[in-house]
């Protein structure tokens, strides 16, 4: 389901806050040929490109955590009474992972 998000993160450079996640995802992809194949299936240009294949899974993990966490908290009513109405919170949560990966 989240494979289509991978290309969003291949053209960016991870900022300092995302660097540790990129390093850990790089080790994961390097140790698991299935992960590397999954990335290459969604981002064919990433096959053999360590930079792209490093950023893509890291961005995907960060995006999933942001979006899932926000949706889960909203569904549980955790934001009730905080003034979060309409679109500002989901929009901000969606933009945060993208902001962690500046365009190269």
Automatic annotation (TrEMBL):
<feature type="region of interest" description="Disordered">
    <location>
        <begin position="66"/>
        <end position="104"/>
    </location>
</feature>
<protein>
    <submittedName>
        <fullName>Uncharacterized protein</fullName>
    </submittedName>
</protein>
